[in-house]
Amino acid sequence: MTGPGNEWFDDDAGPLVRAYAMTGGRARHSGREDFAMMANVATVARPAGAHPGIGPEHISIIELCLEPLSVAEVSARLRLPLVVVRVLLGDLVDHGFVTIRRPRLHAKDGVVTEDLLREVLHGLEAL
């Protein structure tokens, strides 16, 4: 999109305004915890009917996480930026629809193991 009046659009940037709208302009959720990419997300409840503050993207996360997935996997599967997914997850945790479990570090005597490195690599590839 080029031409007069279109200087705010960038074909390569993608739908930036949509991501901003999904989070209500928030770059962080209201909680203190910053969800690690490798943390597991699991659905614990589904909203019964319409629920204030829960939009279609929230519902997509709830449905996707009926089987636990990492935060990075949720981001990749929904094709949403990680920062957006973290805000949406914060909303879902606040409403009691999902739980977040931190990954266990597989280290022996403070040494990082091959399994841990493999998990990190898979998380990065999922982005």
From TrEMBL:
SUPFAM superfamilies for the chain: Winged helix' DNA-binding domain
Domain of life of the organism in this record?
Bacteria
Tell me the InterPro entries matching this sequence.
Answer: DUF742, WH_DNA-bd_sf
The protein depicted here goes by the name: DUF742 domain-containing protein
Organism for this UniProt entry: Actinomadura barringtoniae
Cite the source lineage.
Bacteria, Bacillati, Actinomycetota, Actinomycetes, Streptosporangiales
